Amino acid sequence: MKIAAVQMVSTPDVDRNLEAAGRLIAEAARAGARLVALPEYFCLIARSDGVKVEIAEEPGDGPIQRMLATAAREHAIWLIGGTLPIRSADPERVLNASCVYAPDGQLAARYDKMHLFRFDNGRERYDEGRVLCAGGQPIAFDADGLRVGLSVCYDLRFPELYRSLMQPPCDLITVPAAFTHTTGAAHWHTLLRARAIENQCYVIAPAQGGLHENGRRTYGHSLIYDPWGELLAEVPEGEGVAVAELDPARIASVREQLPALTHRFPAALFAAG
């Protein structure tokens, strides 16, 4: 199966972002991708975080979700819709939700980002918890016989989430992101490659990548790693699409040669210690 990571430089205008996403999804589909993944906040990089609450949609309904469903159906692809704000029980905060659509346009899965980013180095300061509620459940789904595990951006720093998704093992892990340039330059490639190697699966990481109209700079480098940690495709900065072949035989070969997943002690044993 061909898979594609879409890189965007999203704006404060939802309509412009949906148009750009649609254009890039079509480009990925023309390249033969059967599964396409958009970046975190593909629909909006706002001038203030409060706008996420203003544009948040009800679960299962809204123009952003309808656009994703339509694109998946029109191109007959599995579409991982980056993230979008979904209303929560708290009227002042939203869920950062990754919605997955099947080739018939139906919602196949939804994962709400569990780990909320907070950073302060004296020059840059950001706290997602001001407007986001954390999700509480790991989610994986089946795409044409492949097990796909969902995660978002800051989740990447918490390997225990990915271990929980490996029961049974995933064939692909998705990491839509909007890494800051500072943290991305330091850690992006290292963390993604580690997740691929330790879980012996493909990793696809579609990202925001460039200087946004609100002044924020994101790291970009949307990419795809194979189960041995080999980099298969990458878009450094700006709009683009990274496409690669996901080969189940490659996963089986890596796991047969180095059966690390079968050598793990039960998690309960470590907890008891």
Question: Which helices and strands, and how do they pair?
Answer:
Elements: E1 2-7, H1 14-30, E2 35-37, H2 50-55, H3 63-75, E3 78-80, E4 84-87, E5 94-101, E6 107-112, E7 118-120, E8 125-127, E9 132-133, E10 140-143, E11 146-150, H4 159-165, E12 172-174, H5 181-199, E13 202-205, E14 222-225, E15 231-235, E16 240-245, H6 248-257, H7 267-272
Parallel strand pairs: 1-2, 2-3, 5-9, 11-12, 12-13
Antiparallel strand pairs: 1-16, 3-5, 4-5, 5-6, 7-8, 10-11, 13-14, 14-15
How does this structure look, described?
By secondary structure, the protein is α/β, with parallel strands linked by helices. It contains seven helices and 16 strands. The strands form three sheets. Strands 1, 2, 3, 4, 5, 6, 9 and 16 form an eight-stranded mixed β-sheet that branches. β4 and β5 (94-101) form a beta hairpin. The radius of gyration is 18 Å and the shape is globular. The N and C termini lie far apart (42 Å).
CATH topology descriptor: Nitrilase/N-carbamoyl-D-aminoacid amidohydrolase
Question: Any idea what the shape is?
Answer: globular
CATH superfamily: Carbon-nitrogen hydrolase
CA gyration radius, whole angstroms: 18 Å
Structural class, from helix and strand content? alpha/beta
Number of domains: 1
Order of helices and strands: EHEHHEEEEEEEEEHEHEEEEHH
Q: What is the CATH C level class, in words? A: Alpha Beta
Residue-averaged pLDDT: 95
Q: What would you say the CATH architecture is?
A: 4-Layer Sandwich
% residues in beta strands: 25-35%
User: Tally the helices: what do you get?
Assistant: 7
The major pleated sheet works out as:
8 strands, mixed
Estimated helix fraction: 25-40%
